[in-house]
Design a protein that fits this description.
Shape of chain B: globular
Largest interface: B-C, 42 and 39 residues
Distance between the termini of chain C: 16 Å
Strand order of the largest sheet of chain C: 1-2
Radius of gyration of chain C: 20 Å
CATH topology of chain C: ABC transporter involved in vitamin B12 uptake, BtuC
Chains: A alpha/beta, B mainly alpha, C mainly alpha
Distance between the termini of chain B: 42 Å
Helix content of chain B: over 70%
Structural class of chain C: mainly alpha
Number of helices of chain B: 12
Order of helices and strands of chain C: HHHHHEHHHHHEHHHHH
Oligomer: heterotrimer
Number of strands of chain C: 2
Largest sheet of chain B: 2 strands, antiparallel
Number of domains of chain C: 1
Chain lengths: ~240, ~290, ~325
């Protein structure tokens, strides 16, 4: 193996099946404590499936996922979240009839219980404190994404999996969201950022993987990799 | 004449309290899990027989028996959901219907085997025989008033539980988006099991009052399911206080129907139910 | 499929055809009691096929189909015994009445979704049963026997009547099987199965989901009504609890279809056979046979949703006995 220290999250030869269809094919990746890893790829490349498999929501899985040395095979999502991996789901997936505060509190209730509490979340997202009693379903897209992020952070994860947080949002809003990412990193939380949009995610990432049809086609450091190379492996040839 | 009518109305409203007790647990579980347990009425009857055995063979006071039964009821509901019904939740509704239908038949015939076909009743002692004058001239049975109060307490408690407690927000979250709950680490299976357990506690309470209020026999389950069902559809799916309204409407309809012909009592209820369905397909107080 | 399996499949198909032909000639070589049992079998089979069509293919789960059976029973009595209509004609007329009742019932019930719809059908059945029990001309709550003159129209001797009832039942069963088979092989049928597998996708490719459901519901009602008329001939009387029996015409049917294999053509047949065999041996057990059926039903759902059919498919023969697939292979009938 290339790395000498055991990574915080180690994915070894992971394949995920939907029936006979192989959505993820022999993926190898790792995430170290505190680093930001970007996973890019076109629609249908298997990015969301990969994250769901890591969080324990896939049925037919081959290969291995290790977190802090421990094999996550067969563990329930609730168990995995309690151990320190939280998912910000694609499309936000808030509980629409619950208030902002209730949504956030759920994130805290299922998590590890640590330094991050409501105060920290209000500090990151002041507008949410104003809207804390509103039903989550009534918020704007950007505000909902903030709630989803806050919900994930309140679980006090060691790794935060972010599934397409820029989806469907206006550029200004996306900028605001991405501006928060360094703050999260500074608190020691590692992040896996899955995006179709390469520019922003590669700009914040320490390392990246490119997925095409379920396979890793390219891995490296954004600064060392040319845009052409990325495009080539994003779309495949 | 008017006095008699008012008397009937009051009786009907109080009967509605009993019906609300039947329906409360069903409304809770149906609202959360979006399926209706067809064996709900049979479980109420099962609980009645359990109370019968506890009060006659073990000689316990009815109230003591009911209180002791409640944690058992919770455990039964939790286990039933966790290990049997969970395997068919979310799949085609057909499977849930078939499994709970099967349970209904098994319970009815099991009770028949054990207790025989006779009707039974739990003796309520002074609670049963006392009357109370709500208003001068209107005398009602104390027990029916107690039942109505119990119904209000149960409905109110469930409402409080849903909207002001941690478990309540978890239940509402799973009800909103079960897949999302699982994704963020909130085990929907566990939440469903808790909801079912709570639903079964209300079944225990309903049985506590029903066993004293009227006769029951092993085949009485379906009748109570239909009543509960009509109450929750009338009241609006997902609304706990709506169930109280639905129960009262049904109770009044039946009591007034009974005035014309005793045998019309049940028919009247069904007809009012169907009529309301025509006019207000989402019930009287829909939440969703 | 191996050669042995193909041979087995074809042998079974031949056997099935032979049995059907044999049954057609039943009254010539079967004893009276056997004719009675088989007439009963045919009624249950028709009800099972109809319930399976609705629940297994059209996604309409009813637990109140006994409503239409009872309506057909009472309508038959009304036409034949009260209105003096030709008894043979009264049978299809019973079906027409069931259809007429189905229209407002459907308008009411289709406002309800899923399980609420199912229980709603039960409420309608209850109302109809209670209503029927109120009408004096039908003997009120205790019911009334079919007059002997009406019965004589179906045969002057008891044996003759048994034979006629048998043939009527057989004809209805063949009709139910045949029409279901043709329906499922037609474009409409393919649309139904697409709808069952995934309603949204089906709607997006142009299957009119609501219309399909309406047509199925309205198509099944008259058949149930006619079955009710035939059951009246078998039972020789109408009565609220008997003609509208939820246990006989809904509960048992549900169990039968589930155990046989819901959503398959062979399922209702296998399930009804299973039930009748069980009944012969379990008739002394009383309530236990219902408990056993309930437990089997639940067990089947947990183990293999496709019932006996599914088990056969898994362990013996991976093919349809009565195939409705549109593959151009030798597997088609």
């Amino acid at each position: 193996m290339a790395r000498t220290n055991a990574a915080l999250l180690q994915v070894e030869g992971l394949s995920v099946f939907y029936g006979d269809f192989k959505a993820v094919d022999g993926v190898e990746l790792s995430v170290d404590a505190g680093e930001i890893v970007s996973i890019i790829g076109a629609n249908g490349a298997g990015k969301s499936t990969l994250l769901k498999a890591i969080i324990g929501q896939s049925n037919r899985v081959e290969g291995r996922v290790r977190f802090d040395g421990a094999d996550l095979a067969g563990r329930s999502t609730a168990d995995i979240v309690a151990r320190g991996i939280a998912l910000v789901p694609e499309g936000r997936r808030l509980f629409a009839s619950l208030s902002v505060e209730e949504n956030l509190r759920l994130g805290w209730a299922v998590g590890r219980k640590g330094a991050i509490g409501f105060d920290e979340v209000w500090r990151l997202f002041p507008i949410l404190e104003e809207r804390r009693r509103q039903k989550a379903g009534l918020l704007s897209g950007g505000e909902q994404q903030m709630v989803a992020l806050g919900r994930g952070l309140l679980a006090n994860p060691r790794i935060l999996l972010c599934d397409e947080i820029s989806l469907g949002l206006a550029p200004i809003v996306i900028n605001d969201l991405y501006a928060i990412i360094p703050t999260i990193k500074a608190s020691g939380i590692a992040m896996v950022i899955v995006e179709q949009d390469t520019t922003r995610s590669l700009a914040v990432a320490d390392r990246f993987y490119c997925l095409l049809e379920g396979r890793v086609t390219l891995a490296g450091i954004p600064a060392d990799t040319s845009r052409d190379a990325v495009m080539k492996h994003y779309f495949g040839e | 004449m008017v006095g008699a009518l008012i008397n009937q109305l009051v009786q009907g409203v109080l009967l509605g309290g009993l019906y609300t007790l039947f329906a409360a647990g069903l409304s809770f579980s149906a609202g959360v899990m979006r399926f209706v347990n067809i064996a709900h009425g049979d479980f109420i009857v099962l609980a009645c027989f359990a109370l019968l055995t506890m009060t006659t063979t073990l000689g316990l006071h009815p109230v003591v028996a009911m209180v002791l039964l409640l944690p058992v009821a919770f455990a039964v509901g939790f286990t039933l959901q966790r290990f049997l019904l969970q395997r068919v939740v979310g799949e085609k509704i057909l499977l849930v219907i078939l499994v709970t239908f099967g349970l209904s038949i098994i319970i009815q015939n099991g009770l028949l085997e054990v207790y025989g076909a006779d009707t039974h009743k739990v003796a309520g002692g002074w609670m049963e025989t006392s009357t109370i004058a709500l208003v001068p001239g209107v005398n009602v049975g104390l027990f029916s008033v107690l039942t109505f109060i119990a119904a209000v307490i149960v409905v109110g408690s469930l409402d409080l539980l849903l909207y002001r407690s941690g478990i309540g927000s978890k239940i509402r979250a799973v009800s909103d988006d079960v897949a999302a709950a699982d994704l963020i680490g909130l085990s929907s299976a566990w939440v469903y099991a808790m909801a079912m357990g709570i639903s079964f506690v209300t079944i225990g309470v309903a049985a506590g009052f029903m066993s004293i209020w009227s006769n029951f026999d092993p085949s009485a389950g379906p009748t109570h399911l239909l009543i509960a069902f009509e109450v929750i559809v009338l009241g609006g799916l997902g609304s706990m206080w709506g169930s109280l309204a639905g129960g009262v409407v049904l109770g009044v309809a039946q009591t007034i129907g009974a005035q014309f012909d005793v045998a019309w009592q049940i028919m009247a209820g069904h007809i009012v139910f169907l009529a309301v369905l025509v006019v207000r397909p989402n019930g009287l107080f829909p939440k969703h | 499929m191996t050669r042995e399996q193909r041979m087995l499949l074809n042998t079974l198909r031949l056997a099935l055809a032979a049995v059907a032909i044999g049954l057609a000639a039943g009254p010539f070589f079967l004893a009276d009691t056997q004719l009675g049992v088989l007439a009963d079998f045919f009624s249950m089979l028709v009800l099972a096929i109809m319930w399976n069509l609705l629940a297994g293919y059209a996604d309409i789960v009813t637990i109140g189909q006994h409503a239409f059976v009872g309506v057909g029973a009472y309508a038959f009595y009304a036409f034949a015994a009260l209105a003096g209509v030709d008894p043979y004609l009264s049978i299809p007329l019973a079906g027409v009445v069931a259809l007429i009742v189905a229209l407002p019932a459907m308008a009411l019930l289709f406002r309800l979704r899923t399980v609420y719809f199912s229980i709603g059908t039960w409420v309608v059945a209850e109302v109809l049963m209670l209503g029927a029990g109120k009408i004096e001309a039908f003997g009120g709550g205790t019911g009334i026997s079919v007059p002997i003159e009406i019965l004589r129209a179906f045969g002057l001797t008891r044996s003759g009547r048994l034979a006629t009832t048998y043939w009527l039942g057989f004809a209805l069963a063949m009709f139910a099987l045949g029409s279901t088979y043709l329906l499922l092989r037609s474009r409409f049928g393919v649309g139904l199965m697409a709808m069952r597998d995934n309603e949204e996708s089906a709607a997006s490719v142009g299957v009119n989901v609501t219309r399909a459901r309406i047509l199925c519901f309205l198509g099944v009602a008259p058949v149930l009504g006619i079955t009710g008329a035939l059951i009246t001939l078998q039972k020789l009387r109408v009565a609220p609890q008997a003609s509208f029996s939820i246990v006989d015409w809904s509960v048992l049917i549900t169990f039968i279809v589930v155990i046989g294999g819901i959503g398959t053509i062979e399922g209702p047949i296998l399930g009804t056979i299973f039930f009748f065999v069980l009944r012969e041996y379990l008739s002394d057990l009383g309530t236990w046979h219902l408990i056993l059926l309930g437990v089997s039903s639940i067990a089947i759902i947990m183990i293999d949703r496709r019932g006996i059919c599914g088990l056969i498919r898994r362990f013996a023969l991976p093919a349809d006995l009565i195939s409705i697939a549109h593959r151009s292979s030798s597997q088609n009938l």
